[in-house]
Amino acid sequence: MADVALAAPRTESQSAPKRTVAIPAGLRCASPVILFLLLGFIAPLLTVVAYAFATPRSFDVFRSFTLENFATIFDSSNTVWMSFAWSLAFAFCTVVLLALVAYPIAYGLNRVFGKWSGLISVLFVFPLFVSENVRLYGWTLFFIKNGVLDGTLKTLGLAGGPEVLFTPGIILFGMVYVYLPFMLFPMTLGLAMVPRDLVDAARDLGAGRLMIWREIELPLAMPGILIGMLLTFVLAAGAVAEAKILGGQSVIMITHDIEIAFTYSQNWPLGSALAVLLMIIISGLALFVMSKLDLDRILGKR
Amino acid sequence: MGLALVKEQSDVAKPSGAQPLPVLQLVGVRKTFGDFAAVERIDLDIVEGEFLTIVGPSGSGKTTLLRMLAGMEAPSEGNITLRGELINDVPANKRPTCLVFQSLALFPHKTVGENIEFPLKVKNIAPAKRKERALELLRMLRLPESYYGKNVMKCSGGEKQRVALARAFAYDPDVLFFDEPLSALDYKLKKVLEKELKDLHKETGKTFIYITHSLEEAMVMSDRIGVMRAGRLVQVGTPEEIYSRPADRFVSEFVGEVNVIEAVKSSAGEWVAAEGGAPIKLKLPSALTDATKVAVVVRPEFLRFVDKPGAADNAMNGTIYNEYSLGSRIQYQVRVGDKTLLVELSRGNGWKGTLDTPVLVGWDATDAIVVAA
Predict the structure, then answer these.
(1) TM spans, by residue (chain A) (predicted)?
(2) B357 and B265 share one domain
C-alpha cells in the first residue's frame, strides 16, 4: 500500500506528457517471479486440471468436458483406490517412524553433541548429493540374496540374512531412510526455538524430565515438528522409487499408476484426474496443518 | 546487627540463642570453568527471612553464584548447605528454592493462569484448587483476576514481571532468587517495582536473594548487600555500612560518584597529596597504620566551597568548570590541576558566582573515608 502512494507521484512527474497506467513499484519488482510462476506453475497446473475433465484416452484438452475420468476412479470394479490407500498409508507410517527416529537426533544436535553438531549435520546432508535411485540400488545390493548382508552372514557360518527385499517393510525402510533429512532439519530448528531459560525455569519450579518434555519442550518445538511432518508426508505420498526398486512392484503406489496412465496406456485424462485427486488430498492436509501453525513465531517475528 | 560474615561459624551450624540459624550457608564455594574461576572461595551465611542483594559489575560471578544456589550449577569446590543439609548435588527441581530469571522465562504458549499454576500442576494439585490459588496470587500481585485467561505474551513489561513473581510464589519456596529481573524496565516502573518487591518481602517473610549490577537498586531494597568483584565477595554489610564504610576503593567507587584523592606519606611522615604535594589531614583507620599510600574518598556532598584555607581541614585551589542540575541538588565540576572534583550542594546553597572562576574547595577529615590505594 505504501508503495503505491510513493510510486504514483513519481511516475506522474517523470512521464508527464505520455500518461501510462501507474504500476506500483512492488508489483514491478515482483513481475519476474509472477511471470515465472504463471508460466512454470499455474499454466501446467491448469493444463493438468483441464486434462482431468477431457474425454478419456484422447488429447481433446480444453475442447471437451466430462466427469468420466473421475467416474472411472470411483468405479468400485476398479482397484486404483488401493494405490491411493497404499501411498497414504506408507506416507503416514513414514511420518510416524521418522518422528520417532528424528526426535532423539534433533535433540542431540541441539543439546548433546556440542561442537560435533555441525559435522553430524553435514553427515546427514551428505547422502542428498547422491541420486536417490543410486542409493536405493545400493540397499538392494545390501539386502539381496547373496548380497552384502546375506553373503557376509553366510561367510561367517551363520544362517543367511532375512529375506526382506520386495516386501512392504523394506519399502517403508527405504522411505524412512530417504526422507530422514527432511524431517530432521525442521525438527532441529523447532527444538532450537525452545529457550534454555524456559527448561531451567520449569525444572526450578519442580518439574521432572517427562513433565518438562510434555509441557514445555514438545509444545514449543511443535511448529518445527509439524513442518517436518508435512514436508515428509507430501514427499512420501508422491514417492515411487522405493516401491519400484526395493519393493520390486510388490506394492503399486499412486504415483506409479499416474505414470502408467501417462506413458504405457496413453490415457492422459485419467492420469490427470488421478493427479488432481492426489493434489486435493495433500493440499487439503497441508492447509489444515498450516492453519494450526504460528508462522510468525517460526520466522522469529515475535 | 549480628549479620556480618562469620567465617569461624561455618563448620558447625549450631543453633544459638542470639544468632538465627542460617537458611543457606556457603563454605569455601568455588566454581571454575576450565582455567577460569568464576567464583573464588566464598563464605557466606544467609539468614532466614533476610533480603540479601549481591551486587557487582558484569562478569563478577554473581550470576554463577546464584545458579549454584538455585541448583543449576554444581560448585567445583566447597559446600552449600540448606538448613544444615548439604545440597551441592541436589538438582533444582528438588530444592525448596525458586529463581526469577532475568528473562522472566514465562511460558509463551501458556496463559497467565497456566503460568502461575505450573508449579501446582507439577505437584498434582486439583485444577479447582490450582485456580483458586492462582487468583489469590493475582490479587496479591495487584493484577486483575480477568488476566487469568490472558495470553502471557500480550502482557506489558511490568505485568509480566508480576506474573513471574506470582509463579514463583505459587511454588511456595523457602528462598527466592532474583537474577536482575528489573533490568529491562524503564526507570519509573523499576522504582515502583523495587518498592513492591520490598513490600512483598515483608508480607511473605521469605528469604530473598537478589542480584543486580545497580547498587542503587540494592540500597533501596536490601537488608544486607554483598559486593562482588572478580569472583570474590569484597564486602558484606548493611546498606549503611556499605555506603559509609566501604572496605576498599572498588566498593567506594561502586557506591556512586566519589572524589578519590591519592595521598602518600612524605619522608617527614606527613600525609601529602600524591599530586601537587599539598599536606592532607586525614583520619587513618587502624588497619592502615603501616600504609605509605592511601586513597582518600570524599563524596561530592561532603565537598564545599570555602572562602579561606582555614575554613576546612583540607582545601584545594581549583577552577569551577561546569554545573549540573540534579533536581533538588546541584553538582559542580571543579578542575584541580589535572584532576576533576565533584562538589554537590543543595539548590539553595548553590554557587552564586560565574563559571570559570577560581575557587577553594574544602572538606573536613571526618567526612572523608580512607581506604587502601
Answers:
(1) 33-54, 84-106, 118-144, 164-185, 218-241, 273-293
(2) yes
Q: Select from B70, B71, B107 the Cβ nearest to the Cβ of A198.
A: B107
DSSP single-letter state for residue B151: B
Residue with cell string 570524599 = B298
B139 occurs within a structural domain: no
* Closest CB from B71, B108, B122 relative to A211: B122
User: B231 lies in which domain range?
Assistant: 8-96+173-249
What does the pLDDT read at residue A221? 92
* pLDDT tens figures, B22-67: 899 999 999 999 889 999 999 999 999 999 999 998 889 999 999 9
B216 and B243 part of one domain: yes
Q: What's the pLDDT band for B14 if we cut at 50, 70, 90?
A: very low
Hey, which of A97-106, A215-224, B247-256 has the most confident mean pLDDT?
Answer: A97-106
pLDDT at site A264:
93
Q: List the CATH number of the domain containing A218.
A: 1.10.3720.10
**Total residues found in chain B within this entry:** 373
Determine the 3-state secondary structure of A23 from DSSP: coil
Largest CA distance in chain A: 93
Cβ contact A207–B72 (<8 Å):
no
Whether residues B201 and B289 fall in one domain? no
For residue B231, which of B71, B41, B68, B72 has the smallest C-alpha distance? B41
Mutate one of B67, B69, B87, B93 to test the A interface: name it (highest A CB count within 10 A). Answer: B93
B343: closest CA of chain A, how far (Å)? 45
Q: Do A198 and B118 touch (CB under 8 A)?
A: no
> Which helix (H) or strand (E) element contains residue B229?
strand B224-229
Under an 8 A CB cutoff, do B103 and A195 touch?
Answer: yes
Cα distance from A219 to chain B (closest Cα, Å)? 8
In a domain, B147, yes or no: no
Query: What pLDDT, on the 0 to 100 scale, is given for residue B287?
Result: 81
- The ipTM, to two decimals, is 0.79
